[in-house]
Amino acid sequence: MSDPKPVEFRGSSFDDLRAFPIQARREAGHQIDQVQNGQEPDDWKPMNTVGRGVKEIRIRDVAGAFRVIYIAKFADAVFVLHCFQKKTGKTSKTDLDLATK
What we know:
- The chain is of the alpha+beta class.
- The chain has a single domain, classed as YaeB-like fold.
- The protein is 29% helix and 31% strand.
- It contains three helices and five strands.
- Strands 1-5-4-3-2 form a five-stranded mixed sheet, with helices on both faces.
- Strand 2 and strand 3 (54-61) form a beta hairpin.
- InterPro entries: HigB-like.
- This is Phage-related protein.
- Residues 30-49 are annotated as: Disordered.
């Protein structure tokens, strides 16, 4: 078995993830761990509007819906681009632009 890929957080994504409620934060950590070990998260969707190979982990919690946007197609690391709480049915343009940046 190969070593897990390291995780690199971009922009404010690490602080944003730490602001999640504890259960959502634990679930996000578990899902990121799966990605580090070459597996798919339990609930995800492609985010081609952000870029090729970008995916969104979907976390549902009693406190709401949370998202972790990442890219793992590079050999050197899993890059977490943006973490946020989703408040509407459609991901906001602001969140998409931040992940793209």
